[in-house]
Amino acid sequence: MTIEQVIIRLFLTLFLLEFLVEFALNEMNLLYVRKHAAAGGIPKAFDGRLSGADYQRSVQYTLAKGKFQRSASIYEIILTLWVVFGGALPALNRIAETLGARFPAGTRATGILFCLGVGLILSLFHLPTGIYSTFVLEERFGFNRTTPGLYVADRVKAFLLGLAIGVPFLFAVLWLMDVAGPYWWLWVFFFVLGFQLCMVVIYPTLIAPLFSKFEPLREGELRQRILDMAGKVGFKASGIFTMDGSRRSAHSNAYFTGLGKSKRIVLFDTLVEQMSVEEGVAVLGHEMGHYKMKHIRRMLVLSSIYLLAGLYVLSFVLGYEPFFHAFGFDRPTNHAALVLFSLLAGAATFYVHPFFNYISRRHEYEADRFAAQVLKDGKPMEQALIKLTVKNLSNLTPHPWYSAYHYAHPTPGERISTIRQER
């Protein structure tokens, strides 16, 4: 057996293992939800707060999403394996070399065209599942408000934005890989980290408004209560905004975004309509808690360590010819290394994701506790969670293993029970 065959078998094994783990967890979750639904009892945390009809509707939504996930996972692994092992990448590389030769030397045109081409192909492959999810699944349960025209406009904007940002980003990364010597991975790490920080700063004010409309939260009790709470906890932001999330979906949410002077609090207009003033203040207290307890910085540090480790591993692969030969390339190239690494890394590190989700769930508990302490009452946060869960048809009874693997937030029942215990 050649070393190339060993490499192929290794990654096929990892792909299959990841697929089997996620497929098995999804099936376990579906069985678990059906079992609880058949028993007919509404979870204790929602007793008296949720009608039987709403519970059954949330069950049907969960089951529909799980069945779709089953089909989508099969579809996606087949396409990914075809792209990686079916000769699509070498063929695309030859096309990129032909087109890149027409550009001046030093433009890294071949590498940029190859990376963008792979990204475009994968985006096109994901269109069917995205369209079905939006216009069939979400439509069936009354969540979709996206028109076909808006959906196309979003995709076109995302494509053009990807070109505007992706071309200079790829040029910089490929240039550093060429000129920075054996420690190129360290220089690329600092560049990517700086790029991410810049995106966090400019996203709220320059990028997000290309897709959604943001307006200052109108004067009133909710705005004043939020400002009073922000002053009390020492939270400074550039403003409190509502976003027209109802243009695309009936789901509701709120989030904190940006750094420094670009920090802003954003509420979906659907959330403002659904929440009482006390509940809305509690939700924003939760978001402020993430900032005050430095959760965003902690996750940035963890993700940075993850990125640095990945680039360091890539530095060992970069000149290893059997690795490139295994996937159909005749020689090592920087752009092929980047694409192969991005496509294969998930299968090699999928078992790390539950750790990041575990940290994230701990942060959610801490933010809930922060909101309850600031308001001196956990009841508004509890009521807000119940309302969000019911309105969004969230899964009330996920399998513990499924939620531990996939959920970045504790289950609604876990969060509500914890709030009640600490009151």
Question: What features would you highlight for this structure?
Answer:
single chain; mainly alpha; 4-stranded mixed beta sheet
Proportion of residues in β-strands: under 5%
Structural class: mainly alpha
How many strands in all? 4
* Mean pLDDT rating: 88
Rg computed from alpha carbons, rounded to a whole number of angstroms: 24 Å
Our count of helices gives 16
Q: Classify the helix fraction into a percent range.
A: over 70%
Q: Which parts are unreliable, with pLDDT below 50 for 5 consecutive residues or more?
A: none
Please give the largest β-sheet.
Answer: 4 strands, mixed
Inertia-based shape = globular
List the secondary-structure elements in sequence, H or E. Answer: HHHHHHEHEEEHHHHHHHHH
Strand order across the largest sheet: 1-2-4-3
What does the oligomeric state look like here? single chain
- Termini Cα gap: 64 Å
